[in-house]
């Protein structure tokens, strides 16, 4: 059976440096004997459709050299995070190192590490430029569009909430002004400020609840379809909508209560004179 694998040449302590877990079998030991063994990632095992490839003989490369599967490691995202990880075969080729990966210990700054590595590199590779990059920065570049969309979404969401609050305050003020006589009569008949706030707020909360119930499935559908383009994605939790709903209800209650409180504390005689 012929299959296409992405080949990765590594040296000592590759899995440790990259933080990759050996899920089954063994890791490279750092001895010359490792050159006859390979590691497979989970995607490769899935593509091969075998239960236990450990000690399995496979041929790889232009010369179709034979290797023995030493272990299985977790998938390593090297290319696009938006696509499934390709089946990968990891070979121990210490002498063919073209890139050196360095993992910094806690407390070691990048500047301090570079000042230590640069003279060593120049000593053994005087004819080559000392080019370097940081894994986190390189990975961030893959999400430039997503970060921009996130910032714009937050900006427009905040603007939309602000406009909604202004509109809600205006609607509440208009509604209360139309019912100012009713509020005055109820107050004369013994209604408390809390009862008046509850009376007015119930109508607005009912409208907000209806709008929320309509918006939730639409929002879920949009988010679900947007997340499908990512191979690695979060799950949409019901708590997201519950928290948003609670915040909206609290904002509505605060805005309506503030306007109702102003009307409820007015002199009822003035309210009854209002046409």
Automatic annotation (TrEMBL):
Main location: membrane
Keywords, comma-separated and alphabetical: Cell membrane, Membrane, Transmembrane, Transmembrane helix
Topology term for the membrane: Multi-pass membrane protein
Compartment(s) of residence: Cell membrane
Transmembrane domains' residue ranges: 155-176, 204-222, 234-256
GO terms for cellular component: plasma membrane
Signal sequence coordinates: none
Domain ABC3 transporter permease C-terminal intervals: 155-268
Keyword Membrane among record annotations: yes
MF annotations from Gene Ontology: transmembrane transporter activity
Superkingdom field: Bacteria
Pfam families reported for this sequence: FtsX
Name of this chain's protein: FtsX-like permease family protein
Organism encoding this protein: Hanamia caeni
Taxonomic lineage of the native organism: Bacteria, Pseudomonadati, Bacteroidota, Chitinophagia, Chitinophagales
């Amino acid at each position: 059976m012929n299959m296409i694998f992405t080949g990765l040449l590594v040296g000592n302590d590759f899995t440790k440096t990259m933080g990759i877990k050996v899920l089954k079998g063994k890791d490279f030991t750092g001895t010359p004997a490792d050159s006859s063994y390979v590691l497979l990632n989970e995607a490769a095992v899935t593509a091969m459709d075998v239960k236990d490839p450990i000690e399995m003989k496979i041929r790889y490369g232009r010369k179709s050299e034979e290797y023995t599967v030493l272990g299985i490691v977790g998938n390593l995202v090297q290319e696009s995070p938006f696509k499934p990880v390709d089946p990968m075969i990891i070979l121990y080729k210490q002498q063919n190192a073209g890139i050196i990966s360095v993992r910094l210990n806690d407390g070691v700054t990048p500047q301090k590490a570079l000042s230590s590595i640069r003279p060593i590199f120049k000593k053994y590779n005087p004819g080559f430029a000392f080019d370097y990059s940081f894994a986190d920065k390189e990975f961030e570049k893959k999400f430039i569009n997503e970060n921009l969309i996130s910032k714009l979404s937050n900006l427009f969401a905040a603007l939309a909430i602000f406009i909604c609050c202004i509109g809600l305050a205006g609607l509440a003020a208009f509604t209360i002004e139309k019912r100012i006589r009713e509020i005055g009569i109820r107050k004369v008949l013994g209604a408390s400020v809390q009862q008046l706030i509850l009376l007015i707020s119930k109508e607005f909360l009912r409208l907000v609840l209806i709008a929320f119930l309509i918006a939730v499935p639409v929002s879920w559908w949009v988010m679900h379809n947007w997340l499908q383009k990512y191979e690695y994605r979060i799950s949409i939790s019901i708590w997201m909508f519950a928290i948003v709903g609670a915040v909206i209800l609290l904002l509505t209650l605060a805005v309506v209560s503030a306007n109702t409180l102003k009307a409820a504390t007015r002199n009822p005689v003035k309210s009854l004179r209002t046409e």
